Amino acid sequence: MAVIRVGVVGANPQAGWARGAHMPVFAALPQFELTAVATRNAASAEAAATAWGARHAFDDPAALAASPDVDLVVISVRAPSHFDVALAAIEQGKHLLCEWPVGSNLAQTRGIVERAAAAGVRAFAVLQARAAPPAVHARALIAEGYVGRIYSASIHAAFPTWGNPIASAYSADVAAGVNVLTIAGGHGLDLATFVVDQDVVDIAGVESHLRREVKAADTGETVPFTAPDQFACVGSLASGAALSAHIVGASLSSRHFQLRIIGDAGELTIDADGMPEIAPLRLSGTRDPAQAPSPIPVPDSRYLVPGVEGSALNVAHLYRQVADDLASGSRTAPDLASALKTRALLDAVQRSAAGMGRIVLE
User: 323 vs 5, 30, 83, 329, CA distance in Å?
Assistant: First the structure.
């Protein structure tokens, strides 16, 4: 495959995640060409095509997927719509790149994975924290023995995103699948398992549901709140090391994330002033018992996409991995099979929190 022709579903030029995270990538990476966009109606689709320089505008994602000028369908719409758009792409034999959490629940994620595999198309997930240069460097350091034998990987984080007011009305509904567990937990736990290069084998979790209604910032309305306020979990990695996480979604003002990995030869910490898939990551560590952790510079060679910043930085590095995978058949970008593992982990936390005790993952 030469230049990869991209169609973006959810390319609203006025609002939405794609505007800041996806669109800057196409100017920075010559491996891609934006050829088509789709939004909810013809007028906004035409406006998006004009704004982003796409040749085709659609108000139907299935029509975009059917276009002969599209090789890769990017799904950047709300989670409840992921499943139908993904199936439309797969039915047309198109590769796809789907925003996390890849559907509203585990069954939808598994369904997309199975259908993509049966159709022989490559399916990727926007789990962009693992593409961040500091995360890639941390994984390499651990592989080289920086921390030695891993004893534990622990996450602590707090964000106001799911506070009062909550960012969006639809995310107050747990059935939508977009809440502190699935988003903050999904990106955070996926980053942890990527950096240590181990799967989780068992998990136990708790959730708190302290609020019954919240005000929605996007609509100004007070809506029922059925999603969790926060969650905590503890489990085992494949090596026997401990994994733990406590993520608060209703912090009054704090925006922080920390992943700390402790081994018998050293420690590494990845932290950020915000959610790890978006905020710039910092890497620090120590191998000296007498020295506190200090910043670890990330080599310039880890930064593969110049000219991008903000929410587009990690996404651009993920796209670079996707381009390499499609060109060579390699498997460096997070695909939906790996995303399914993270989704199954979150489902196990939910089931454990509902009273099922410690869950052994398959």
Answer: 11, 10, 23, 10
Question: Rounded to 5 degrees, what angle do the CA atoms 89, 29, 49 make?
Answer: 55
Number of domain units in the chain:
2
Pair type for strands 282-286 and 294-295: antiparallel
Mean pLDDT by 10 residues, the chain (362 residues): 92 90 96 97 96 97 98 96 97 98 94 96 98 98 98 96 89 93 97 98 96 93 95 98 96 91 98 97 97 96 95 98 96 95 97 97 90
Q: Are residues 165 and 97 in the same domain?
A: no
- Tokens 């994975």 locate to 113
What's the start-to-end Cα distance of the chain, in Å?
35
Q: Does the predicted model carry a pTM greater than 0.85? A: yes
Last residue of a domain, one of 88, 121, 154: 121
Instruction: Give the residue from 57, 78, 61, 64 showing the smallest Cα distance to 13.
Output: 57
As beta bridge partners, residue 59 has: none
The C-alpha R_g of the chain, in whole angstroms, comes to 20
